[in-house]
Amino acid sequence: MKLSSLYNIIKKYKNYAEKEKFFEENGYYFRGNKMTSIDTIRHKITFEDGSYHFYAPDDYHDVLLKEEESSKPNFRLHQTCWACPEQYDVFLGEKQVGYLRLRYGMFRCEYPDVGGEIIYTNTECGDGTFDDDETRERCLEAAVAAIAKKLDISDYTFTIDYL
């Protein structure tokens, strides 16, 4: 599943009409709510149900996920701490299949839970939180790939639930 940061969407579409058309055609979500528009002047995101959210101009770590109808297995990453350490529990259905943690410059993936087998590590992700959105995307994708390989799953999707 392709992840796009709020920052990248704002950069790509300079005018309001282009952004609205993009959201309408692609069905993007912000923190689980379907977006209909984004106002970069007022820093306001409007959702399908008419509600809205004001975001900080520098708060670009929230990830937008394109919702896709799929019969593929979906790994759900549930963020349990946003920094020092940034960590996630990984579920396949209701079963926990992984634990991801970034602390002291070491990102690791343990299977199936904390204290389990370490199946992926990376020392180039950040310290207590990821350096940037691209690094977060790359490291989380690699960790999910390691879990999928361990479970002998070759075609899958994943979503992230942020705090």
Structural class: alpha+beta
Instruction: Choose one word for the global shape.
Output: globular
Output the number of helix runs: 3
Question: What's the main sheet like?
Answer: 6 strands, antiparallel
* Widest sheet: strand ordering: 1-6-2-3-4-5
| pLDDT < 50 runs, ≥5 residues | 57-69
Helix-residue proportion = 10-25%
CA radius of gyration: 17 Å
The whole-number mean of residue pLDDT values reads 79
**Residues in β-strands, percent:** 35-45%
- Number of separate strands: 12
Secondary-structure element series = EHHEEEEEEEEEEHE
Number of domains: 2
- N-to-C terminal Cα separation, in Å? 20 Å
Characterise this structure.
The protein is α+β, with helices and mostly antiparallel strands. The protein folds into two domains: 3-66, no CATH class; 74-161, no CATH class. The chain is 22% helix and 40% strand. It is built from three helices and twelve strands. The chain has helices at residues 6-12, 16-26, 133-150; strands at 3-5, 28-30, 33-39, 44-47, 52-54, 63-66, 74-82, 86-92, 95-103, 106-111, 117-122, 157-161. Strands 1-6-2-3-4-5 form a six-stranded antiparallel beta sheet. Strands 11-10-9-8-7-12 form a six-stranded mixed beta sheet, covered by helices on one side. The longest helix is centred in the last third of the chain and has 18 residues, at 133-150.
